[in-house]
Amino acid sequence: MVKCPYCGYESNINDFKLLRNPWRYRFYEVRRLECPKCRKVFNYYYEVTSEGKEVKFMIRVKPRG
Known about the structure:
Layout: E1 2-3, E2 10-11, E3 17-18, E4 23-25, E5 28-34, E6 41-48, E7 54-60
Antiparallel strand pairs: 1-2, 3-5, 4-5, 5-6, 6-7
């Protein structure tokens, strides 16, 4: 489950719009997502450690302009 850091909408990652291809940042896979409810953009960082622990967090993306 992914939770929007702006409005709190929580759903499956497939319900969020992927705005660009995923990329690697250190050991994280990063996806730029758009919330279907509030239309705001954020980066979703995800990783599974060698011990099997999920690590995930979101960072808001500042709009250009």
